[in-house]
Amino acid sequence: MKKNTVLVAGLLVIVLLLTACGAQNDVAPPVADSGEETEVDDTEDTAEVAEEKATIRVMTFFAYDNPEVEKAVVDAFMANYPNIEVVLELEPYDNIFTKYKTLVAGGTPPDVLSTNYEQLNGFADLGALEPLDEYISSTELDMSIYLENTVAMHNLNGVQWGLPATFSDVVLAYNKTLFDTVGVDYPDGSWDFDRLKEEAAKFVEDSDGDGLVDTFGYAYAWWPMYLFMWDTNILSADGTTCMLDQPEAIAALTQLVEMQQPGGVATSQEAQQSQGDWDRFIAGNLAMYPGGPWIVQPFNDNISDFEWDIAHHPVGTQAGTFLYSNSYVMSAGSENKDAAFKFIAYATSVEADTIRQEGKFEIAATKDVVENVFIPAMAGAPPASASVFMEATEYGYKLSESVHFTEILDIVQPELTLAYIGEKDIQTAMNDACALVNDLLK
After folding, report:
1. More confident residue, 201 or 15
2. What is the pTM of this model?
3. Largest Cα–Cα distance of the chain, in whole Å?
């Protein structure tokens, strides 16, 4: 499988030259001398037709837990474009795409939407998005400001559907104080899954003696990430065949099943019903939590009783992590497309990326900000090892692309759940899932 390596090299200096053209000729024509004193009316009609103010709706999940971040981007945009009013609609990630489909079906979509490359295929296939190529060309937008592979994530079949605003990966957050208390060495890039399970088991504890585990050693990430650690993906490289029933995928997913079984080191399905992994880590009852740059500000805002840091995630047969990218896209149903594109171009610019980066939301998709703002913005607060976020991009992978991506997830997840709770073995579950996925792909 081809590795997507983010190349962050060289500082781009962007110089925008705006040259005024066509100066007005103010010289009056000669007047014939009649010998009489003539009163000349030199009053010119200089009244400008006021530009009509456009209003656009922007629906986004960006920095939902820190709403002041994207609000600052919107405020900066409106300061630069006073004739465009932005109505900002912040939505949680878990809800935004379902809501967008509902709004599209009802004929009332927002003008601009934040999305990720997993959802892009489906929305484009539905005809819900406006291609951006013509707008990029007509405005001569400088596409070289972006990291190349973040642009590619939002380009399907040669059509640019979105402009990248952020990218991120997943590393391992850990509770340093808890590690010190239990006497476990901090995780580093040398850990494999055997070492992960061995060390995580030392944190599992029923502290109040009620027969239920209160503290766990590990919370598993979204399941496709483990496929990367065993050098595979959901679909074959050409997107025509389900790969989840193959040995590499079975080896990867077996790790998740085993860690959640009774006596396992990860939070079980039952434990997650009583307290989610996010809240459990913040409460100090979880030793290790896989997460990306989006965890930084919320964790620092809510964690006061212990110290935390990040490290490279333990490896399978190889190192592997998600390489995500989020973009702003335009609704095909927007009635203010020019204004919408102006927002998209600004909201993915160096200026807007700087605002997000200083707000510690993910990693900027513009080269200049990645190199000069990301790490400095992390200074003075956890995680001390913020550079791990950038180092992990070297082994970042992209999920399989398919217009049926969300349908595939809807097929696979119930089968995985049956394996997690022990009603099916993982091989049977994935055989059943792949049978349905392959029928869908035909």
Report:
1. 201
2. 0.74
3. 114
